[in-house]
Amino acid sequence: MFIKLAPSILSADFSDLKNEVKKLEKSGADLVHIDVMDGCFVENITIGAPVIKSLRKNTNLFFDVHLMVINPEKHIEKFIESGADNITVHAETTYHLDALLNRIKSFGKKASVAINPATPICLIENVLGVVDMVLVMTVNPGWGGQKFIHYTLEKIRNLSELRTKKGYDFEIEVDGGINEQTVIECVKAGANVIVAGSYVFENEDIERAIKKLKESVEKLNK
To answer: pTM of the predicted model, to two decimals?
Structure first.
C-alpha cells in the first residue's frame, strides 16, 4: 500500500513558514497539511487564506487544507483562490454537507470530510460516494501535541471495510498523535494518508523524522 505523509504546519515555526515548507519539499513530504482554525469551532486560532496564498507562490506541494471553522460555506471561494488543492470540511460544522462537498468539487478541487473522535461514521455514510478523502481525527481538534485516541482505530477499520464493500475509492486520512508506533496501527487499520505535526517539526532533523515514519510503514510490506 502506498502511504502519503502530510506534515502539518500547525507545529511549524510560524515566523518562517516559507522556509519550513521548503524543508518539507526537500524532505520527501507528499502533501502539506494546513490547519485553519477560527477560535469558534475549536479554541485555537491559526492562519487564513492570505497566508496560504503567500505560501502557494513558493512551493508546488499539494495543499491539503483542513477547515476547522463554523459556517465553512462562507469561506470556500477564498480558499479555492488561495491555492488549496483539497479542502476538508468537518461534518459537525454544516447542515448541508452534500451540497458543500459538491460545491468544492465544482471548482475542480478535491473535497473531503472530517469527523471528530466522538462523531460516528453514520453521520457521513451518505456522502462516502462523493468525497475524495475522509479525515478521521485521532485527537480532539484544536491543538498539536496531543496523545493518540486509540478507539478511533475502530472507525478507521470500519471505514476501510465499508469502502471495500461499497466499491468506493476515497482515501482515509488520520490526524493527531502520530509517531512511529501509532502510524503502524493506523495503516494496519486502513489509513493511507498520515498527518504528522509535532513529530515532524519538533524533531531537529525534519528529513530524518519523515524518513523514520516512512520506514515504519515500509516494514509492514515486508
So the answer is: 0.95
